[in-house]
Design goal:
Blueprint: E1 9-11, H1 14-22, E2 29-32, E3 49-51, H2 59-71, E4 77-79, H3 81-87, E5 91-95, H4 105-113, E6 121-125, H5 130-143, H6 147-168, E7 176-182, E8 187-188, H7 193-199, E9 203-204, H8 218-224, E10 228-231, H9 238-242, H10 246-249, H11 258-261, E11 265-268, H12 281-292, E12 306-308
Parallel strand pairs: 1-2, 1-5, 5-6, 7-9, 7-10, 10-11
Antiparallel strand pairs: 3-4, 7-8, 11-12
């Protein structure tokens, strides 16, 4: 590709940044969102977005702030239209799946309308289930005239997934699993997570594949009494989640749960894994396989991707 025809890509979703880099276009990235942090080398890029609310505080406080903004039909993030104009992108990648999790298509279209000299192609991703992630990789690849790269990447990822799934399905024992995506209020994991749990050899108790994450109640959690609980709040790393685990462990119902009694409560990195619908969903599957069948799977994610929680 001639230098004058090289794309200038701005990625406004952490997962799409990972897709762009996995396709071999990291050097063509000229801007990113405030949440794009992998690979670490993208930190050099100008930040084109920011939240409209205070992102610090408890999960309950964050939830209330987001709800207040969304109820007013406002996006929870802002796009710097002036910086977009300065960067002169040929491609802007955003999404329309969840306006809470990333910069929305509406945000980008609004910002692009303010731009006068650049007319970038807007690539909007919509990952609701695992199959949609492959579709989105193809969509990014097609927009960059790299269809062959996209197909090769998908093939590699699917081969890794298939190897885990085949082995996991051979086990007679399948533990029941509850994935908690938000602590206060309680929310279960939906979208691709139920699929990953089943592929890892578990039985998913909450959330439905291809549908948004549902709220859950303590009554529902105790009634289903899972063998394994995985706490992986969206956007939280392990230390941040650990700050709020007392909100679960201080509940009177907590100690009666089977997963708690058998030391099978795990805190996982919901920022780097699970909640990013990109190439590292394969690593997310590896983590779940380690948790569901530790005697059979060891991918060495313990410590970085997940830890065992013991309230002491």
């Amino acid at each position: 590709m001639a230098a004058m025809n090289r794309p200038r890509i701005i990625s406004l979703i952490a997962s799409s940044t990972e897709i762009v880099c996995a396709l071999g276009f990291e050097s063509e990235l000229v801007g990113r969102s405030h949440e794009c942090d992998y690979p670490a080398s993208v930190a050099r890029l100008p930040v084109c977005t920011g939240p409209k609310f205070n992102v610090y505080g408890t999960s309950y406080e964050i939830d209330e702030r987001v709800k207040a903004i969304v109820q007013e039909s406002l996006s929870v993030y802002r796009v710097d239209a002036g910086l977009l104009e300065e960067l002169q992108p040929t491609h802007i990648i955003t999404q329309s799946q969840c306006e809470v999790c990333a910069v929305s298509l509406r945000d980008v279209e609004s910002a692009v309308c303010e731009m006068t000299s650049s007319r970038p192609a807007i690539v909007s991703l919509e990952p609701n289930a695992l199959a949609d992630v492959w579709t989105d990789i193809r969509r990014v690849g097609s927009s960059l005239a790299a269809e062959d790269r996209a197909e090769r990447l998908i093939e590699i990822l699917q081969q890794r997934i298939s190897a885990i799934t085949r082995r996991a399905q051979s086990f007679e024992s399948r533990p029941t699993v509850a994935c908690i995506e938000w602590i206060e209020p309680l929310m279960a994991a939906g979208n691709w997570m139920p699929e990953l749990v089943e592929m890892a050899g578990g039985v998913n108790l909450f959330g439905e594949a291809g549908k948004h994450s549902p709220w859950m109640t303590w009554e529902e959690l105790t009634a289903r009494d899972p063998d394994i609980i995985v706490v992986t709040p969206c956007g939280f790393d392990i230390p941040r989640t650990m700050e709020e685990m007392h909100l679960l462990s201080n509940r009177p119902e907590w100690k009666s749960l089977k997963a708690v009694q058998s030391d099978r409560v795990f805190v996982a990195d919901g920022n780097q894994y699970f909640n990013r619908p990109g190439p590292r969903l394969v690593e997310s599957l590896e983590i779940l396989a380690e948790l569901c069948h530790p005697q059979a799977f060891r991918f060495n994610h313990e410590g970085a991707g997940w830890i065992c929680y013991n309230a002491g």
